[in-house]
Amino acid sequence: SPSVLTVCFSYLTGKGSLTEKGEVTAAAVCASCMVPARGHRTLELGLAWDMPLIHFGSKEKLHLRRYTRYFGSAGDACPALSHYALTHYEQWEEKIESWQRPILESSHLPPWYKSALFNELYFLADGGTLWLELPPEACAEDVQGPAGAGLTQLLPVLREYGRFAYLEGQEYRMYNTYDVHFYASFALTMLWPKLEISLQYDI
């Protein structure tokens, strides 16, 4: 059960050592259970990584990832993240299935459309996406510089929904390029409209 897994990993305390450049590392997870004759059992494992602070190339400023609002920014949230995933993934699967089933079972829609509709959303999760938390002490000038001091409508939106950005592509390391977003914005507008609002305000 999720609680058992959390207890299993609770003994891993203390600070780990950094690896040297080129050093190969590995990790393993072991779980066991009794399987009766002609029976079966299922073991569920949750994998999580906790990297709450990020910076861009210039390293001028640290940013908090969005999930730190709920799990903290100390870098010790992996057990809580795993537990949360293991206790909620069935609900997530049910919601995804109920969302996709009417489209996938429709005989009026061609296969290429079904594939594009769902499979091409991968880029929002795998395309260098960032969802950042705005620090509570941030002011308009922190967000937009001196020219943003008059954008009073911006701060409440960013405080509530965070800052959202994604790369133009893995080859082009630019975030939220507006010509590319013109094509991608429909997915955000239909599925995550508050993120689209946040992104538009930011631009």
Automatic annotation (TrEMBL):
One of its GO terms (biological process) is central nervous system development. It comes from Chelydra serpentina (Snapping turtle). Coiled coil: none annotated. Residues 162-203 form the Glycosyl-hydrolase family 116 catalytic region domain. It comes from the Eukaryota. Residues 17-92 form the Glycosyl-hydrolase family 116 N-terminal domain. This is Glucosylceramidase beta 2. GO terms for molecular function: beta-glucosidase activity.
